[in-house]
Amino acid sequence: MGANNGKQCGSEGKGSSSISSDVSSGTDHTPTKAPRNVTASEDPVVLQIFAHLSTPQLCRCARVCRRWYSLAWDPRLWRTIRLSGELLHADRALKVLTQRLCQDTPNVCLTLEMVVASGCPRLSDRGLRVLGQCCPELRHLEVAGCYNVSNEAVFDVVSRCPNLEHLDVSGCPKVTCISLTQESSLPLSPLHGQEIGLRYLDMTDCTSLEDEGLRAIALHCPLLTHLYLRRCTRLTDEALRQLTLHCPALRQLSLSDCHLLGDFGLREVARMEGQLRHLSVAHCSRITDVGMRYVARYCPRLRYLNARGCEGITDQGLSHLARGCPKLRALDVGRCPLVSDMGLEVLARCCAGLRRLSLKGCESLTGRGLKALATGCPELQMLNVQECEVPAEVLRLIRRHRRRCVIEHTNPAFY
């Protein structure tokens, strides 16, 4: 793959030198007479070593000698660029790197497929525009925490990089829409039938995202399979209806800490023709047993559910869920004080394949339900009963039946 798919050794950080300076120096100090081309067949060992270097290290290696210069800029080493560091001039670094990579194919870099610039606060729209203009083969882009990035730059990238499948703009509060129209407020369908090929979109902590923005995303990104909207606190139930209408392939969805969402929105999400496998509605306090009934009815293939902190869920909702979603592998109902032994007994009878269960802070548990889990869930690998008043002998019983199960607890009498 590429040099930068390996571990990020010596990544840029505070006080470190700029990558753009390394690239510029490496280019400027190379003799005007072009170095003899060194092929991978002549020096495969060095090329393999270079393939494990980070982006900054590879740039510095290009300054050592002519031979290393030719090897360090082998196109196969530049399928991925990874940048990091609060002081890094990310815009300039991307400009210089893409210019160097475009030398053999003027103005176009055909090798670059992945750019990871998360945690580079100095990255702005200018840097992303460079990628949109020069890197049509880009497939994977991560700019998490780059709070200067806005809708305009995202538009440039998604409209000029037709192969883009993975986009992470988490922690970018200026991003309010992903679409093929410059104005997110315009109620337009994708231009000339075009659509964005995104499969994975992370908009966690995009705090300005509203219903209209999510509607545009659903219209323009119908191929989405993974969507993360954690802490997008302005979204309401009405917005989720657009996902049902336009994103039928959605398999993983996170709505954690979206406090305005309730049972109606969960009903809309659940009606995705049974495609959902992973769903998180943690700390959505308006969700109750009614929402769990919808999930149980429409999501028989659900594998993972995080409903931590949904205090309106009771044993009745858990029972509906267990009966309707027998393929559950992981479940978190921590901080749901109305969940008790009765709900766990139904869970143990109906979900024999359960592997991970969190009951942290469920104060109504006594131990009867946990005994049922110990005998009814032979694949159980992790059980969290922290802040639950569970007798030590019950925990010992679980350990005896499920030796491979990791038990997280706060009972000092159990060792």
Q: Kindly state the percentage of residues in helix.
A: 25-40%
Strand residues, percent: 5-15%
Structural class: alpha/beta
| Radius of gyration over C-alpha positions, nearest whole angstrom | 26 Å
The side-by-side strand order for the widest beta sheet comes to 1-2-3-4-5-6-7-8-9-10-11-12-13
Individual helix count: 15
| Backbone shape | globular
Quote the distance from N terminus to C terminus. 46 Å
Protein name: F-box/LRR-repeat protein 7 isoform X3
Keywords: Ubl conjugation pathway
GO cellular component, one term: cytoplasm
Domain F-box: 35-81
Topology, please?
Blueprint: H1 19-28, H2 44-50, H3 55-61, H4 66-72, E1 80-82, H5 90-101, E2 114-116, H6 125-134, E3 140-142, H7 151-160, E4 166-168, E5 200-202, H8 211-220, E6 226-228, H9 237-246, E7 252-254, H10 263-270, E8 278-280, H11 289-298, E9 304-306, H12 315-324, E10 330-332, H13 341-350, E11 356-358, H14 368-376, E12 382-384, H15 392-401, E13 406-408
Parallel strand pairs: 1-2, 2-3, 3-4, 4-5, 5-6, 6-7, 7-8, 8-9, 9-10, 10-11, 11-12, 12-13
Any overview of this molecule?
The radius of gyration is 26 Å and the shape is globular. Helix 1 (19-28) packs parallel to helix 3 (55-61), helix 6 packs parallel to helix 7 (151-160) and helix 12 (315-324) runs parallel beside helix 13 (341-350). The longest helix has 12 residues, at 90-101. It contains 15 helices and 13 strands. With 415 residues, the protein is an alpha/beta fold. Strands 1-2-3-4-5-6-7-8-9-10-11-12-13 form a 13-stranded parallel β-sheet, with no helix packed on it. Pfam families: DUF7885, F-box-like. Residues 10-26 have a biased composition (Low complexity).
